[in-house]
Design goal:
The protein has about 400 residues and is an alpha+beta fold. Helix content is about 30%, strand content about 30%. The protein contains eleven helices and 22 strands. Helix 8 packs across helix 9. The longest helix has 18 residues. It binds fe (ii) ion and zinc ion.
Length: about 400
Amino acid sequence: MGEPTENLAMRSQSERYQISEIHQDKRKIFLDWGDGHQSRFHYTWLRDNCYCSDCGDPKHGEKRFLLLDVPVDIEPLSVRWDSGKALEILWKPDGHRSIYNAEWLRQHCYSATEREHRQHRPILWDSQIVTSLPQIAYEQVRTGDAGRLQLLEHLRDYGICFVRNVPPQRVELESFAQSFGPLLETNYGRVFEIVVDPEEKKKSVANSQINLIPHTDDAYQYAPPGIIFFHCLIANNDGSGQSTFVDGFQIAEALLQEDSGAFDLLCRYEVSFRKYYSDRIDMRYSSPVFCLDSCGDLRRVRISNLFPAPLDLPEAIMEPFYAAYRKLMQLYTNPKYCLKQGLQPGDMVMFDNHRVLHGRTAIGMQNQRRHLRYCSVDRDYFYSSWRLLNQNLSFQG
Ligand SMILES: [Fe+2]
Ligand SMILES: [Zn+2]
């Protein structure tokens, strides 16, 4: 009989964090690990990352020296490793002592394989997601860390999660959203009622009846809202006013496959947006549709047909850019990519506005009319709460 799976997993975890061999050259240290991987750390990097109490605050990672204080050709005086669990280096010329925990070193190894391993891979989706929606009952997220972690993981992986049976009180949504971070103050306030209202629609198209093509919110801002909460209080009883969602990362992937030249144009050149009403608001921002990180992975999307400003692009780019922009629109308006959901009272949907586009079908005008409540939380606070919870749960487990 083979070894039980849990034991194997634990053994491979401990091998992963066990230093088995060390050697050095003029500029780097080579660490061989129990699982066969080799890390190579430059001396400059190691010295720069000393978190001893002279160099900073070890608990909070704050730093109290400048790289310029470190000699450019820094080298160890001596290197020692303590039973494979920690690495101790005394540095030339002053004998400064640095200690690095083996687990920390492995977690920060910058070899190509480990950097790739750390990269989060989102799960792309299209209209078929309707058969397996990322969703959770409100009671589970309100009463237990495990439920809350599941919700946060859905947001991280799919960019969206439906929460069922949320009580209708305004304070309930407010306190729930606040448990992830401070509510964002917008020009509509912190909590905003989305209802058909002829007066309010001057401020926001959300308060009109019209069909809203999927978009990311507030594209005209330097920092658009991060995680958006929509809580449904009333649904139209004629099936109108359905919510629509499109995975912007899936759209990017589809465009890349279909026409990589078009994709590149939308990564390189900026689209302009403007929001203006009466003499109170005039916001403007320009950004590429797709923002990539240094590895070429997609970080965020910004797509909105609601608040365009004239494109301001080099003359030679205008025509190819428009061709690319049309292809993008064909994708995000294609029903194949669109999740359509008639939200019911008590349903709440949370989504990442830097990934998922939202819209709605036109709202019918009979007596029972759609009412959604809206608020948003900054992405930084939101994912910070995920990391803290993840850490706490793994400490328990
Ligand atoms: Fe919107
Ligand atoms: Zn130090």
